[in-house]
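Q: Got a minute? One more chain.
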Amino acid sequence: MRRIIFIIGMTLGMCFCVCARGQVKNDIWSEVSTHLSMYGSSNNHMEVSYTLGYNFTERFAAGLNLEESVTLFKIDGEKDHYVNTTIGAKLSYDIFKKLIAIQAGSGVTCDNKPWKYLYYDAMMCFKTEIGKVVPTLGLGIRYYDSMSKSFGNYFRGYVSLGCIVVM
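A: Always. Here it is, folded:
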């Protein structure tokens, strides 16, 4: 629980620091995206996420993230799957305005399932603006810090497809 409070505190602190230094944009946006990765035959991950965010400046944004993830495991020849709901936060910075952004985020499972974990996420996102709709394509990495004794920690790469709508 202390990790979650620390992560949320650091995210809010960075938001206020950047907001104080930059030109304010004041856009609220929502994003729906999918993340897909595969590890051969040992485990597969897929997440569908919804993010509600706010642009603090022309280049900096933060958002609250809600994800539904499905993980398929093959352990000792046995196949099993786990469905988890996670909640987290992410920060985004546009390197090249309205074309390429980097994102960092973190979150935690919020339901009482056998596999509980914290995740840490980094992604490079390619996007183009079409009015108030922004289609996205991302390449990212994610680390799962398992809080369950039955499961180890995992590191994976993924591809993300999404769509942002500016309100």
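A: The first helix runs from residue 2 to 21.
Q: Perfect, thanks.
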